[in-house]
Input
Amino acid sequence: MEMEADVLIIGGGLGGLSAALFLSELRAASIAISSKSPLGYGGSTYYSQGAFRCPIGGYSIEDHIRDTLEGGRRINRPFLVHMLAEGALGAIRALGEAAGMGFGESRGSLRIEGPDPLIPSREFAIRLGERVKALRGIRAFEGARLLDLAKCPDGSFLALHAYNGRILSIGAKAVVLATGGAANAYIRSDNPAQLTCDGHGVALKMGLPLVDMEFVQFFPLGIAEDGRPALMIPFAKGRILNGLGEDIIPKYGLGDLGEALRMRRDLLSQCIMLEAAEGRGIGGALLIDPEPSDDHLSKSAFELMRRFCLRPPVRVLPTAHYTMGGVEVDEGLRTELPGLYVVGELMGGVQGANRLGGNALTACASLSRLVAAEVAEYLEDEFGEGPIGAPEPALIGDLMRGYGPREGSVDAAELRLRARRIMWERVGVLRSEEGLKGAIDELSEALESLGRAKVRGPGDLIALKEAENTLLASLAIARSALEREESRGSHFRMDHPEERPDWAKAIRVRYLEGAMRCEIAPID
Output
């Protein structure tokens, strides 16, 4: 073991940075934080529009709770929604103070006022990263990629990373996983490329249950032009045209484009995919013919179009944007494994069947503050000031057994790419029993074939682990989607198109004995 810490935080986005900041205020703990990129740079917050939904401007805590539950189609865990809303404003303002940045205020929202109109939260994320690195007792490992996480006999944890061409081992009394969501399980996603479902995969391998994995939020307007990334391009005014020249907004009774994007993103995504699937697309996509608007989202969309040298109309298709599913926690924000905590998009049960706009950043701030308090209490109760024990050599040996060079017939990176295509084609916006079963078969076969993957150096080892994590998260999504025989929120089954009252319950999925196993759980 090369380093010991009281707490290891894995992930350098808003969730991980918030946990580090709040924990440092509560306890004089030694903290290690590992991140694939420089702190603040690699997470989704860096690329976001910087909106925090919160009780402000005449929008009450009760309003926030109600809207979050209704947006989540009552699949959310009510205790998490109450925690989210009640702690939101104080936590957001504390982060703003830490970053030295102000917010624009409107009813129900605080918005970061950054210098870049396209990604206003960029400066905010970078400043928080710098603030964390400057804190006493914190050591940052930037460019570290998680390979494995294990529980030690004394209750502590051992994490192995690929770091600067070698294996870095970090021992910690407690671990906070802050690795982001699983939207990059899909080939069309607007998430940063380095988010590879690592937290979901590690949690599944450790036997932890995930919940709500079938609920994946697709933003309806993602760029679908050749050679351009599938980034969201959120025009608030304009027409969405099919190959017949029909505007599908009035065709499907969605009001206007702005209303559809605010309130009916899931339905708009479904309508766009239906038009394309039924042959009324243009090269497999639809067209957005935008109109000028003072809306901040439209301004960023026009700026994005300018930077990518796009001319209207622009081809669009939905893009995977956010995953509501993640690791299950109890009312103390604890996972089933003592000392292991999750924050941010990796925490399941918060957003329900569809996330309310602005709640992604709010969850990172509000719930990370509460998790930090739980971690501080855990350290005091379980370890006091004592050191952690040295991990058994056999444990490290078991973990590293597959790290050495080996020949193989499978390229893990190519396998991951294939899996992401399967997810888009069969487990995307439009789902069916036939498609889901076919996806599960293909993904299971791909996971099994990883045993034949070549490992000739650190790059291959990282690709192997990222493929494994992506495949495990993908199987959890597909298996949960097959189990839920209804349509609700972001989950749409063409063979079960109606929402059913008897399905107002959660699906819990575990990876046991090499298979994904689902169970139905009440909403409590």
About this structure: Residues 402-521 form a domain with the Methane Monooxygenase Hydroxylase; Chain G, domain 1 fold (CATH 1.20.58.100).
